[in-house]
Amino acid sequence: MGFYNKYLATTKAQKTYVCIGLDSDIIKLPQAVRKEPNPMLAFNKRIIDATHQYVAAYKPNLAFYISQGAKGIDTLLQTCQYIPKQIPIIIDVKAGDIGNTMQQYAHSFFKHFKADAITINILMGKDVIEACLQITGSFVFALAITSNPSANDFFKHHELDSTLAKAINQVSAKRIGAVVGATQGSDLATMRNLMPKHIFLIPGIGAQGGSVESVCKYTKHSPENPLFLINSSRGIIFADTSLHFATTAQKETIKLRNQINNSL
Amino acid sequence: MGFYNKYLATTKAQKTYVCIGLDSDIIKLPQAVRKEPNPMLAFNKRIIDATHQYVAAYKPNLAFYISQGAKGIDTLLQTCQYIPKQIPIIIDVKAGDIGNTMQQYAHSFFKHFKADAITINILMGKDVIEACLQITGSFVFALAITSNPSANDFFKHHELDSTLAKAINQVSAKRIGAVVGATQGSDLATMRNLMPKHIFLIPGIGAQGGSVESVCKYTKHSPENPLFLINSSRGIIFADTSLHFATTAQKETIKLRNQINNSL
Hints:
The structure is a homodimer.
Chain A: H1 3-14, E1 18-22, H2 39-51, E2 57-60, H3 62-66, H4 69-82, E3 90-95, H5 99-112, E4 117-120, H6 126-133, E5 140-145, H7 152-155, H8 160-169, E6 176-180, H9 187-194, E7 200-202, H10 212-219, E8 228-232, H11 234-237, H12 245-263
Parallel strand pairs in A: 1-2, 1-8, 3-4, 4-5, 5-6, 6-7, 7-8
Helix pairs in contact in A: 2-4, 2-12, 5-6, 9-10
């Protein structure tokens, strides 16, 4: 049904805006899965089993899979296949190419991996967006402003972030959303003003310093339909590396879900 | 020995500045290789056999490999292994992530695929560069300005391209180069002024409209050591899709090599 409708249906049904980043770094995996034939896949399956009732999306980052070569790419595929159909999958690849090349990425992620959305980097211009949108039913999250320490090097160059937001806003909210870093303080409200109807994918809470309360206050579209996903990766999947890692991941997911819902 | 020294050694030994983009789109492969067990790999091997004496680098673009899933990633690995050791490999991935995530990409491309360089997108700031450079011996080409029609949407936003170039210029030319699109006219000279000692990776000649003569005139560091690579992808690898595709690719490579050398 496409990412946008799937997002609306899942967030309504599960009353959650939590996105779990499946950044399943092989060297950080708990001892409990290391003897499995495919430890990353075993880990992801247990995390998904424990959390799927409490999440609005899963977001595997390509880097952690391609670092394992062909086997890692197969793990990514099997992970995507394991995620329950009603939960949207966002592959975090920050792809930023054009024309035929970008279409190859889009075809790969939307058709082969059956992602519902991917993240993109539109530094090369509108050509990047257009190439993606040629794939029927595709949905992309374009970087508007990120949460890392050096985000201001270029995003704040003469308010490039606002210029990116305006370009995103020109495309239907049913086809594109924006990555907006949680650490950006007052810019969060500016971003929502510039993109009133677009879904925000928000990284950077917790370890990176963003606050759930300020994210909710400044970026929600409305309390019933905030039009955002708040991502947590390590704070959930590696909260505990004991035998009980999956149970702890579930608890952390529920905690974040409640914290968001209480702040809406 | 690292990309920078390999580039200097190979360009001196082979007197060529041609980079071949191995954008081996599976649907464009010649009939002659389609019955092979792995048509993309068979195609790449025949292109490499026919051209390696005349090139300064090969540049496979990740998109065309990941579009084939795990098998495509294995093809990329086998292609990298097949390229003669003295010829630098640039994996075109335009990666643009940070911290631990970017290090996963860097580790993957430099250690697993044994690339000599990768392309990166530094929209997220200096964090992107720093994460890559933590891998010993790594070399990156950062997008400074590209050759596509919409490149000016953001690269020209208050001369962001110049700001990117200045950031690139702050890092040793032995660790970073710049992607500078051939179609950018007078900006080519500006880019060289801003990055006098850095190697330029230049896409966009031929089909995209950039001229070899103007690229050489405006971006060469010196006739003996122009510090650039001029990339051609489709113009070489898909110049001919008959049985003689490899011979034609060789002829086109030699033609481009001579055209560049005559313009220095």
